[in-house]
Amino acid sequence: MKRIPVAFWILAPFVMAACATVPVSGRRSFNIISEDQELALGTNAYREVIGTSKASPDTAAAAMVRRVGERIARVSDRPDYPWEYVLIDDPKNQNAFCLPGGKVAVYTGLLPITKTETGLAVVLGHEIAHAIAKHGAERMTQGILLQLGGQTLEAAMSKKPAETRQLALQAFGLGATFGAIMPFGRSQESEADRMGLIYMAKAGYDPREALAFWTRMESASGGKSPPQFLSTHPSHETRIRDLQKWMPEAENIYSTIVTTQVPHPPLRGTFPQEGKEYKEFPSPLGRGQGEGPEQLPTIDKK
């Protein structure tokens, strides 16, 4: 019988503690960044974005971002995050992101592609899924192990603060210039597609809009997407095929939600455009066209 190395018994508890199950997909992930560390890094990065960007003066569009974000946050696996929302005035930027802790930003250049609240729900469901699945912390774990010699985060921050800060920004999908959103890995993007589809359906948004939105997004790129083997994003064809595969589950959830909608209490958060705390009241449940009663679904999270 072979002897198990002592190192295995020493490292095994740490490896097991660093493993977690991603909601919806059930995938096992490996992450050595604590949640407190992750949220602090996400908040700091978000403050940097806000400090170097201009908030959109379009209060109606900004309120829509907040409304859609809150509906999805409420039914996500982390409604307890200190959620924040901002609409950044940059008509040339067709991006959005959600940093750890629920720090959401949408660029105005994306709104002509989303078109409706339901289209925006596709994007925010996807971006919020990245944060819930801790994709940024997962990538930062890989970076620390590969680029910073396997140091702990505390050691890396004290010895190489600039390198660690840049690693965190890249891990959370932010480039050297904050407007440049860097893609996650292909498997993480697909996982976010699946989770986002479920979240938007639970929030009362028709998940079938995801097919139309991603087709519009492909058209907006001018068909310049690289082949899948050269890209960290799934190809358009692969994305559509996967969405169609996951659609029956999402449609069943959506159908249940729209036929059993019940009043939902308001949710608090912060809204940078107004620079103060707000109290959001339930928004219309429907297909993003402003129709329907002032009701939201309550999701049983047993």
Sketch the major β-sheet: 3 strands, mixed
Order of strands, widest sheet: 3-5-4
Low-confidence runs: 4-17, 176-182, 226-230, 263-302
**Elements, N to C (H/E):** HEEHHEEEHHHHHHHHEE
Helix content, binned percent:
40-55%
General form: globular
Number of strands: 7
Kindly give the count of domains: 1
Q: Average the pLDDT over all residues and give the rounded result.
A: 75
Number of helices: 11
Q: Structural class, please?
A: mainly alpha
| End-to-end Cα distance | 45 Å
Rg over CA atoms, rounded to whole Å, is: 20 Å
Assess the beta-strand content as a share of residues: 5-15%
Question: Quick summary of this structure?
Answer:
With 302 residues, this protein is mainly α. It contains eleven helices and seven strands. The chain has one domain.
What does this structure look like?
This protein has one domain. Strand 1 and strand 2 form a beta hairpin. The protein is built from 11 helices and 7 strands. 50% of the residues lie in helices and 10% in strands. The strands form 3 sheets. The protein has a 3-stranded mixed sheet with strand order 3-5-4. The longest helix is centred in the C-terminal third of the chain and has 24 residues. Helix 5 crosses helix 9 and helix 7 crosses helix 8. The chain is globular and about 45 Å long. By secondary structure, the protein is mostly helical. The C terminus is likely disordered.
